[in-house]
Amino acid sequence: MAQPVQLFHAPTSPYVRKVMACILLRGLQGRVELIPTRPAENPGALQAANPLGKVPCLVTAEGTAIFDSPVICEYLDGLGNAQPLFPSPGPARIASLTLQALADGLCDAAVARHQSRAQQEDGAAPTPRQSAFQERQMAAIRRGLAALDAQPPQGLAEIGAVAAACALGYLDLRIPELGWRAIHPRLATWLASVEASPALARTAPPAG
Ligand SMILES: N[C@@H](CCC(=O)N[C@@H](CS)C(=O)NCC(=O)O)C(=O)O
């Protein structure tokens, strides 16, 4: 029996969710030990493994730290015998990686907006600078969603689709008022067709 790998884990992180979905899709759950982590509390073990102090970070059985989420997902694709989520080199791989980058970028903008809002004093309106920053992130999210809708993912068999599902779930968590399903019904139909799969259902973020 191979040694488990360790994963620094936080349940609301969309990047962690993507890694967890890959673990489930590839049947690796018995080989990964989850380390509950709150990056904002600067845990030493996380920072020793990932100097950037971010989750997800995976530590192999040999003690090698791997980050960030695209690299972890690619590492996981080399474990076990399940169908790979990363296509072989060529146009399909580039398309899948580009879709993953778009989805991760949606998360980056939503995380940045959420952090900016968290910096507002309790109940206070955003300063003009905060407001401009948050609107800039929202504009990126709207453009990113339009780009996703122009070439909607299909199924959940490649890393781009997995990342897109996690990004849309994160928008539901952090920006429900965006109402992206009404703007992009095609994306809503796609997500509805895959969200009951164990890889997504078992990794859904806690409410709030
Ligand atoms: N590009 C990274 C992003 C990771 C990331 O931003 N993680 C957030 C949680 S959602 C984090 O750990 N933030 C802690 C911090 O920035 O201090 C990835 O894909 O793994």
TrEMBL record:
One Pfam family named in its UniProt record: GST_N_2
Domain GST N-terminal: 3-84
InterPro entries given in the database record: Glutathione-S-Trfase_C_sf, Glutathione_S-Trfase_N, GST_Omega/HSP26, Thioredoxin-like_sf
Name listed for the protein in its UniProt record: Glutathione S-transferase N-terminal domain-containing protein
Organism: Teichococcus vastitatis
